[in-house]
Fold this sequence. Notes:
Blueprint (H helix, E strand, L loop, with lengths): L1 H13 L23 H10 L3 E6 L2 E5 L4 E7 L2 E8 L11 H25 L4 H15 L10 H20 L9 H14 L7 E9 L2 E8 L2 E7 L5 E6 L2
Helix pairs in contact: 1-3, 3-5, 4-5
Amino acid sequence: xxxxxxxxxxxxAMLLGSVSPAVAKTPGSLSDLVGxxxxxxxxxxxxxxxxxxxxxxxxxxxxxxxxxxxVVVSQGRYAxxxxxxxxxxxxxxxxxxxxxxxxxxxxxxxxxLASHKKxxxxxxxxHDSEYSRGYSDGLYGGSxxxxxSEGYHDGYMAGETEAANRRAANRPYARGGSxxxxxxxxxxxxxxxNAPAGSSVVVSQRDQRGNHVYTMATGSYRxxxxxxxxxxxxxIQPYY
Length: 240
């Protein structure tokens, strides 16, 4: 069981990204990764000493001890790998909200697979591998493999859902409210949906008599969380 969880965690660490334009210069040591398929390229980033620090504004931010780079994934491939300021990797300052979004990216596959196995009780190694492969293709906009298995199909659907959640979380109307309220509702939504910590993300927000009402996405599930600006959860209800 421990080996299976560890393997899933490694795959999850590889499955991060979104879409956004690039602006800076690619370090020579990483230039060969531009255009590569995302899962393999991310494995190479780790092999070359980089660690994914956060996900924000449509990009992944990786740090290797002295260099911060921003990776943008488009249609399942590395569209750009650009050197950016160290602060973008949280070295010298960072955003609590951005760190929370990064946590969602890291646990996405683990949460989806755990939820799937809980419902279907079909967790053999081959099924998990097929689910992970489908999740990667769905998340990164890859072509659907018509020679699919049930695990691949379910993973692909979950990956597409996660991609939609990430796009919604990066839109302006999802960024309002307070950092404290957003973080508190993310934790409460995880508990409400019985999901692993870090699974939930804000996909829309509105003000209500001095408080903030957040629509929370936890995979394919939605809930409505009301919180004060200081981070006290007032109420959480299913989304209808």
